[in-house]
Write the structure tokens for this entry.
Amino acid sequence: MADLLRFRDDEPVDHPAVTVDAYLEQSNAAAVRIEPGDDARALIPHLDGLRLVEVNFPAFTDGRGYSAARILREAGYTGEMRAVGDVLIDQLSAMRRCGFDAFEPDKPLDPEEAKAALATWPQVYQTAADGRAPIWKLRHG
Amino acid sequence: MYKYDQYDQAMVDARVAEFRDQVRRRVEGRITEDQFKPLRLQNGLYLQLHAYMLRVAVPYGTLSSAQMHALADIADKYDRGYGHFTTRQNIQYNWIKLEDTPDILADLAKVEMHAIQTSGNCIRNISSDHYAGATADELIDPRPYAELLRQWSSFHPEFLALPRKFKICVIASEADRAAMKLHDIGIRIVKNDSGEIGAAFYVGGGMGRTPMIAPCINPFVPLDQLVTYCEACLRVYNRYGRRDNKYKARIKILVHELGAAEYTRQVEEEFAHLLTQDIEPPLAELERISTYFASPAFETGLSDDIDRSDPDFALWVDTNTVPHKAPGYVSAVISLKPAGGIPGDASAEQMHLIADLTKQYSFDECRVTHTQNIVLPHVKKADLHALWTSLEAAGLGAANLDRIGDIIACPGLDYCSLANARSIPVAQKISERLSPRSAELGELKVKISGCINACGHHHAGHIGVLGVDKKGVENYQLLLGGSEADDTSLGKITGPGFDEAGIVDAVEKATEVYLAQRTDGERFLDTYRRIGINPFKEALYG
């Protein structure tokens, strides 16, 4: 947990995440881990009991986890959304926009570089899961 | 044309700063080449055989005079005095140094340009009709819709690590001058029976090793849902597009494997959900963008007469100008295909001249075509002779639009690390051999790719040439009958391939079959479609 970069005030869940299949069979866990091939929508009927969703990125070039995160945020999930695995500095700003609020990479990130990366965009063009007002909204109110 | 406001400028400036930092971290060894590669690709920087290549975006192919001057300056300052216009309406430079690229991007940002997402597994530059805003046959100028999608697709956080690259095209006429159905998403702006404007979506087209013509998955998406519909198409692709095999990762494979009906069902389901998510900019945003694309102040009462006493000029007018919506005007095409030249190349001096002519004769606007030429969209007929005289003097006066010399060719093995064979020398030889018969042969589109990835659009050529590697030797297959126009079709391979000299002979033989068999007014493609491939095979292999 030492290398967890987290943007939440609540206490982190202290037990390991289970697989989506295991969670769907016996959903008393509070933490689940989504792999790239999992259907995040399968979790939507069970969001109430969830406090931590880990989205695994076995390779940073596989972008399925971005959709998984946004889908769960769009469905109203407000618990922790943690990107784990091959999570790199240069993906942080997009991940944050897709609803991730915690990062636990395989290789630790330099905190200063992470801070700079998250401040990359002065504004944003799109609606996403981070609540930022897109540029078109700034133009038209 | 579109002008950046403070927000657009701030986004592009932020991108330059981000990439400058990424290059610094790469040079310092803080990130690996594997980690850096997708970052540089999404800034247009590609590692070729001999050097880095930088591909600069030309959104929907439209450039101002100042922008064209800036492109010429980059060619002089950072490259070897040349630029190469591409089949995506972009420009690329083939001899770039990694450490120069942040400065090049900063130079581009000063003229509201960038290299964002011109490569990599993301949404690429949006292409459009190179006669947009000038042609009489369009419903409306398609470029505001393309600009709306440019902004939506730039740095889209969910779609920066797609299974594969993703190309979108927007047109607004029945005539297709942008190969719309050969894109991942092709959009045609249409009017429905109630007179409302909307967008027809064609999804899952493409060339490459598995060419497919996109099926129409929705004939009418209302304009105030356009962005949301694109987002739904992309999300289904990002989640379910294949990632196990890069050659099966394009959306065309997903649409093909699911079937268009099932893909559409999934998109519609996602679309219904996304409509509740406040994705769509208001129509006021589209109106804001559209004001930048208002028609220029065309003069009225102009004569349509052209002094045709100079036969060379008359030939150029007949070949390289196309009708315009305003009386007394034409769109003039500057050919970047001199006989025996490198298709799409322009020197810095030529680009500066084109920039000057753009300002002088075409309301400060020019276009890059996907066939690697430049269009001056709004030229007074009365100015044509002066324009042509300037072009001739600079080696830009070739009268060969859509003729045999107007060849599309990819960079091929002269530059590209993916290529199996050279494309440029084959284009040069075909052009040298057959350009003298250009007028007799009429419309004949030749397209050459140096490998199966089909960057030279060989599937869509009336005559296509595909370079392959045959036991270590360059070998060229001949295809006939393709088209990227409204009558989109895919070419068929004639049979065994040829060596470099043999393919030039084979193309010539195909033209001889056409000349012998054609009936009045038939183009090469029409004759081929009427008589089929067999007479050509007999001439080639009999």
User: Anything to note?
Assistant: The CA atoms of residues 22 and 28 of chain A lie 10 Å apart. Chain A has five helices and six strands. Chain A has one domain: 5-140.
